[in-house]
Amino acid sequence: MLKNLKPITPGQRGTVLVSKKHLWNGAPHKSLTKPINSTGGRNNQGRITSRRMGGGAKRKYRVIDYKRNKFDISAEIIRNEYDPNRSTFISLVKYDDGEFRYILCPQKVNVGDKIVSGDKVEIKEGNCLPLKNIPVGTNIHNIELKPGAGGQLVRSAGTSAQIISKDESFAQIKLVSGEIRQVNVNSLATIGILSNPDQKNIKLGKAGRKRYLGFRPKVRGVVMNPVDHPHGGGEGRTSGGRHPSTPWGVSTKGKKTRRNKRTNVFIIKRRKK
């Protein structure tokens, strides 16, 4: 659900945020958090390798259970929480043996609901089972690429994939991007669509809120000096004089960067451009 702020200040005019009234308002579960060391985009030599990073509000990392490997043990949803490290919400679950874990929160899953992972469990939101036992046409998320490796596909807010067809070895899955990919039928996936579908409609409203999130300003190459960027320099306003590139001369805006040819055989249809 979206929250529109009243324009009582210039920064609040036009601001649209996601309402968090229905989420837990306290601290995260302490045993499932880790400290995060801010790098500011710098490597171990102090050189900037990722630009436009740094600052931001201090946060703790929440350890998410992507593997869902406690099989045939029921768990109860204790609470749904906001996670500053990802776009979707997370759920704290308590298993019948007393263990707590965080999982990605699907839509239509409320506090008090029961979920379970297993080979042949009920097809309902939040349950996790192998692709071979999930009916064709079901919406799924947190999909494993290799059995037992933990979910790697479809983990962001409001997203889901769909099983198109299956054979003895592979399931054909249509991803959010439009790509159709083959995945091992023994890989686990979770039923349902992920929470927070309104994430894409957020309008931050002011530059300061972008800084809270850990982003620094984006400076165009054409306003730099030649020593700093290939597009820099020139008399007056210039367009750069060459195809778009990074400060290190690598082509951008349309240059293909995929190099993992080993997994090309699993891609049936490329994503939409």
General description of the model:
The strands form five sheets. The chain has a seven-stranded antiparallel β-sheet with strand order 9-16-10-13-14-15-17, with no helix packed on it. A four-stranded antiparallel β-sheet has the order 7-6-5-8, with no helix packed on it. The chain has a two-stranded antiparallel sheet with strand order 1-2. The longest helix is centred in the last third of the chain and has 6 residues, at 207-212. With 273 residues, it is mostly beta strands. 2% of the residues lie in helices and 24% in strands. It folds into two domains: 2-199, OB fold (Dihydrolipoamide Acetyltransferase, E2P); 220-273, Ribosomal protein L2, domain 3, CATH 4.10.950. The two termini are 30 Å apart. The chain has one helix at residues 207-212; strands at 2-4, 16-18, 33-35, 60-62, 75-81, 90-95, 100-104, 114-115, 128-130, 139-141, 143-144, 151-153, 161-166, 170-174, 180-184, 188-191, 267-269. The protein is built from one helix and 17 strands. The model has no long low-confidence stretch (mean pLDDT 94).
Name the CATH superfamily assignment of the largest domain: Nucleic acid-binding proteins
Overall outline: globular
Q: Kindly state the number of beta strands.
A: 17
Structural class designation: mainly beta
Approximately how much helix is present in the residues?
A: under 10%
Corresponding CATH architecture of the largest domain: Beta Barrel
Unreliable sequence segments: none
